[in-house]
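Researcher: We're teaching a course module on how sequence relates to structure. For the next exercise, students receive a sequence and then see the predicted structure as C-alpha cells, so they can try to spot secondary structure elements on their own. Here is the exercise chain.
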Amino acid sequence: ASLSQLLNNKVSMKMANGSVSIQAVQGEQSYFISRGKLDIEQAQGSIEVNSFLGDVTILKSKAEVRLENFGGKTLLAQTEGDMSLVVKRSDLEVTGHKGKVDIQSDQKKVVIRQLEGTLKADSQLGDIDAEIIGEADVRVKADRSNVTIKHKSSGASLNIGSKEGQLTTARYLKLTRYPSIKVIRGRLRGDSKGRIFVRTKTGNVVVR
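Model: And here is the predicted structure for the students to work with:
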C-alpha cells in the first residue's frame, strides 16, 4: 500500500495487494484497491472506496460512505450516516446501521441486519434479505432477485408486487391481479409504522 497524502484531514491511498488497517481518521478518505484487504474503524467525515477484488470492512464509523466493489467481500457494521453502495460480484453485509442506505447490486446476496433508517435498493440477480428496526422506509426494485423484509411488529403501509414471483405476507391483506402484475397493498397490524414498497419481475417477495 502507498499512502499518497495524509494532510489537512485528508487521506488518499492506492493499494495493489496486501492488507491495511485505518483507525480513527477524521476528514476525507479515498481508497483505490486492486486486491487485498482494507479495514477502516472509528472513522468520521467521508469515505470513498473503489475496489476491484479487495475485501472491505468498515466498522464503528460515523461517515458518508460511497463504495464500489466489483468482486471482493464488503462488510459494514455499527455505522452511521448516508451510504451509497454499488456491488457487482461482491457479497455485501450491513449490520447495525443508522441512516440511509442506497444499494445497487448485481449477482451476489445482500444481507442487512438491524437497519434503523432508509433502505433503497436495486438488484438484478442477488437476493436481498433485510431486517428493519424502528419506522420502516423501504423501497426495493429487483429483477430475478428474491426479496425478504423483516420488520418486527410492523404496522407499515405495504405495497408489494411481482410480475411472475410469489408474494407472501400477512393473510388478511388482499392480493389483486392485474394483466401484467399482481400486487398486495394495505397496512400491517403492528406498532412500528412506515412504508414498505417492493417490485420484482420474477423474484419472490416475503414481508414478515
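Model: If you want an answer key for the exercise: Residues 43 and 105 are 25 Å apart (CA to CA). Residues 1-5 have pLDDT under 50 and may be disordered.
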